[in-house]
Amino acid sequence: MMKHIVSKVLVGQHGVLSTPAVSNLIRKNKALGGILLTASHNPGGPENDFGIKFNCENGGPAPDNVTNDIFEISKIITEYKIVENLVVDISKIGSNKYTVDNKDFTIEIIDSVNDYLQLMKEIFDFDKIKNFIKSKQLKMLIDSMSGVTGPYVNSIFVEELGAQTNNVIRTTPLTDFGGCHPDPNLTYAKDLVDKVRNGDYDIGAAFDGDGDRNMIIGHKAFFVTPSDSLAVIAHYLECIPYFKKHGVQGFARSMPTASAIDLVGQKLNKEVFEVPTGWKYFGNLMDAGRLCLCGEESFGTGSNHIREKDGIWAVLAWLSIMENTGKGIEEILNNHWEIYGRNYFTRYDYEECELEPCNEMISTMEKLITEPSFIGKSFTAGNTIYKVKVADNFSYIDPVDKSVANKQGLRIVFEDGSRIVMRLSGTGSSGATVRLYIDSYSRKYNGVASVMLKPLIDIALEMSQLKKFTKRDQPTVIT
User: Fewer CB within a 10 Å sphere, N or C end of the chain?
Assistant: First the structure.
């Protein structure tokens, strides 16, 4: 195994850097990698609010082979050394030089925002967006949820694009996120949703704690699902200067994400990849030049400008689309659905369930759907009939390095493109979480989502016996 001597470390001023900014810095400085201390999806620490994440030299999350190596090495570490009396003021930008073991060692404190701001200016036409905001008197409400994006939001949306200071909220990063749960969805970003619903805003957006995920809502809190957001951005990619310059390659989504982007890929004659959940699965495709846009149903959207999902990038993409079309968010979505049809989507989370019954349920369900006779079977709910086209426990072979990821979630695909997906995640002391995803396709795009989804939800609940195994009558509805 190759060994590297680290002689220089970059640290964001005040210890603040968003995950997308770190990815950019790794790539720009050709660093060996980056370490992020973050209240992540799978956090540790005594109060489950502290995670450690490693990103590789391409700026993306460490793939399985790297994390497996790290784990194996961790089992044979017998000692570690601490450099005493090495003091650095991370509030002051500048280079701090030291001698450690008779070798030069540098800690450079950098402006947290500037490099990321310059990258966004290379991707988007800031002058066009600024003029659009001014000429249309566009009203926006951007919520950093007391997370790390606050300084970036103030710099980009207020100072650069001319938004008013009251157009941005909760932009001071707080160690406890101000007591809120920084998840950009309809449940945890309710304050933002209520303000936009009761106000006169054209666009609302929220970001999570480390800045890589986003939620988009339109006038009167018209909700854009992450799957639809990804598909709309794909349709309009060439209105963004970066893609005019570098071209449009393929698209990708995580397996549970609704297949709306697949329809765009078919129309534009682009490759569309379906990968397991986890941003690391997009990196190889990007590095190979086969992928330029990707996303997950868990409010993550990004492109090949870095190797992470990027919340602020997604909002700037939407502002570019609004400027290009001259239309509001709801009208943009209606026009999109008129062309492609609509993927109605929801996700149910059954949290803190006993692990053993959940494993039994998944095993029973897998046996049922992988029987050869299951293919072609029809299910009826109300006046709707769904005929099974594909059913499996999803496996993925990376087209680039041929690595294999097995058992990534149970998947039933029907002939009309609708899908039922079920995954089990989390095996900690708080129990398991069962996630049920419903993706119901229809050419009728102006239906009520709850009504359009109900037949497939009923089929999924009956088939899986979820309530029996999880002992949960009311799941958390994420989207």
Answer: N
Cα dist. 48→41, 61, 189, 350, 428 in Å? 10, 20, 20, 19, 11
Q: Pairing state of beta strands 214-218 and 203-207? A: antiparallel
Q: What is the rounded distance in angstroms from the CA atom of residue 390 to the CA atom of residue 376?
A: 9
| Residue 459, helix vs strand vs coil | helix
Round to whole Å and give the CA distance between 311 and 320.
14
CB contact set of 139 (below 8 Å; sequence gap of 6+):
167, 199, 200, 201, 202, 203
Rounded to whole angstroms, the maximal C-alpha distance in the chain is 77
Q: What angle do CA 422, 427, 428 make, to 5 degrees?
A: 140
- The helix or strand, by DSSP H or E, that contains position 463, with its residue range, turns out to be helix 449-464
Express each pLDDT in 347-358 by its tens digit. Answer: 999 888 888 888
Helix (H, G, I), strand (E, B) or coil at 348: strand
The 3-state secondary structure of 427-438 reads: EECCEEEEEEEE
**Which residues fall within 8 angstroms of residue 37, CB to CB, at 6 or more apart?**
50, 51, 52
Which sign does the torsion angle of CA 158, 161, 164, 167 carry?
Answer: negative
Q: The tokens of 273 are what? A: 């990849």
CA distance 117 to 17: 12
3-state secondary structure of 300: strand
| DSSP 8-state assignment for residue 104 | E
Secondary structure of residue 317 in the 3-state scheme: helix
The total of other beta-carbon atoms located within 10 Å of residue 449's CB is: 15
Asked whether the whole model's pTM tops 0.90, one would answer: yes
Q: What is the pLDDT of residues 313-334, one digit of tens each?
A: 999 999 999 999 999 999 999 9
Q: Which of these, 393, 451, 441, lies nearest to 415 by C-alpha position?
A: 441
Active site residues per annotation:
40
Helix (H, G, I), strand (E, B) or coil at 270: coil
Domains in the chain, CATH or no CATH each:
8-113 (3.40.120.10), 342-478 (3.30.310.50)
Nearest in space to 437 (alpha carbons), one of 225, 163, 268: 225
Distance CA 171, CA 150 (A): 4
pLDDT of residue 171: 97
The answer to whether the CB of 307 falls within 8 A of the CB of 27 is yes
CA 169 – CA 12 distance, rounded (Å): 22
List CB contacts of 307: < 8 A, sequence separation 6 or more.
Answer: 23, 27, 55, 58, 59, 60, 61, 279, 282, 283, 286
Query: How far is the C-alpha of 274 from the C-alpha of 265, rounded, in Å?
Result: 12
39-48, 118-127, 186-195, 389-398: least confident range: 39-48
Q: How many residues would you count in the chain?
A: 479
Amino acid at 354: E
